[in-house]
Amino acid sequence: MAVRIAPLRGSDYDAVIDLWRRADLISRVGKRDERRAFTRQLRVNGGLYLGAYDGDRLVGTVLGTHDSRKGWVNRIAVDPSYQGRGIGTRLLRACEKALVRKGIRIFAALVNEENESSRRLFEKEGYEFLEGVLYVRKKVDPDV
Hints:
By secondary structure, the chain is of the alpha+beta class.
């Protein structure tokens, strides 16, 4: 059966968290990634939270967001037993297309320096790595 890309649903929550754990992707269950937050984010980012499905099994995710100027590609994860089949590339391209439909023409992602597979994926898809850019943040609540 071919892997298909489709919008994630609220009912996918447990499968998403399980996939992120199998793929060694950091999740903050009980905080930013709790079920209620995920459901709200699905509504806010309609059509940008995508899954790769082999039948009913979730084998990949990408979470797209935007600020009306720039699109962000977040949480690309592929089940380790499905890696090397082009699913990450398909998820990235599907996310970009969904962002373009919303009028977004610039895409960005935060990639950990040691994450070689993500670095290769983004480089292969034409993303440029910016030297001298620092990631900064401020938390209103330390538990978020």
